[in-house]
From TrEMBL:
Record-linked Pfam families: Flavoprotein (PF02441)
Alphabetized HAMAP family for the sequence: ubiX_pad
Binding site for FMN: G11, A12, T13, S37, T88, V89, K90, T91, R123
Coiled coil: none
Protein name: Flavin prenyltransferase UbiX
Keyword Metal-binding in record: no
Catalysed reaction, written as an equation: dimethylallyl phosphate + FMNH2 = prenylated FMNH2 + phosphate
EC numbers: 2.5.1.129
Protein family per UniProt: Belongs to the UbiX/PAD1 family.
Entry keywords, A to Z: Flavoprotein, FMN, Prenyltransferase, Transferase
Provenance organism: Geobacter metallireducens (strain ATCC 53774 / DSM 7210 / GS-15)
Gene field: ubiX
Positions bound to dimethylallyl phosphate: Y153, K169
Length: 201
């Protein structure tokens, strides 16, 4: 049986990344342990049609963000890593400075100290120098900074295609197999040109 993955949803715009990640992981049969910040609960109402109870129901285990005594607050509780989707700059700042004032930050800090994958889907733009320095500092501590930046080589046809590509990139970092988007296997246009020339000749 695989180890659980910790998923945290914080109050940046883009809560759909965290919600859809839970949907995907549920379909994949991956155990998830969820922490939802207070601000994320408000954003669910603003940005989605999901209720907080519906999102919590997608996870196997749910923790209160104030519960510093939760299992994920200890390094002795084994997990395969943690993804914060989306990650606010406030959360990034606390993680970069080991300021463990709530369970999201404590769980992230534990993930780093145990040398497990920590993926931060930071949602803010434009970025000033302070934001960039926080990202650099978190990276120095072992975090993976993965802003949900859309790609187009897989030719997305919907917003959810774009969401899935970013989620897939995050799942790649924690070693979870998926088929959320078409991967790049090289530019075959040259081969197509050669074949056209061969037929023409």
């Amino acid at each position: 049986m695989s180890l659980p993955l910790v998923v945290a949803i914080t109050g940046a715009t883009g809560v759909i990344y965290g919600v859809e990640m839970l949907n995907v992981l549920k379909e994949l049969g991956q155990e998830t342990h969820l922490i939802v910040s207070e601000a994320a609960g408000k954003n669910l109402e603003i940005e989605t049609s999901y209720s907080l109870d519906e999102v919590r129901a997608l996870a196997d285990v749910v923790y209160d963000n104030k519960d510093i005594g939760a299992s994920v607050a200890s390094g002795s509780f084994r997990t395969r890593g943690m993804i914060v989707a989306p990650c606010t700059v406030k959360t990034l700042s606390a993680i970069a400075n080991s300021f463990t004032y709530n369970l999201v930050i404590r769980a992230a800090d534990v993930t780093l100290k145990e040398r497990r994958p920590l993926v931060l889907m930071v949602r803010e733009t434009p970025l000033h120098k302070g934001h960039l320095e926080l990202m650099s500092r978190a990276t120095d501590c072992g975090a993976q900074i993965l802003p949900p930046m859309p790609a187009f080589y897989h030719k997305p046809e919907s917003i959810m295609d774009i969401v899935h590509q970013s989620i897939g990139k995050a799942l790649d970092q924690v070693g979870i197999e998926h088929n959320l988007f078409k991967r790049w296997h090289g530019d075959n246009r040259k081969e197509q040109v050669r074949e056209s020339l061969r037929i023409a000749n």
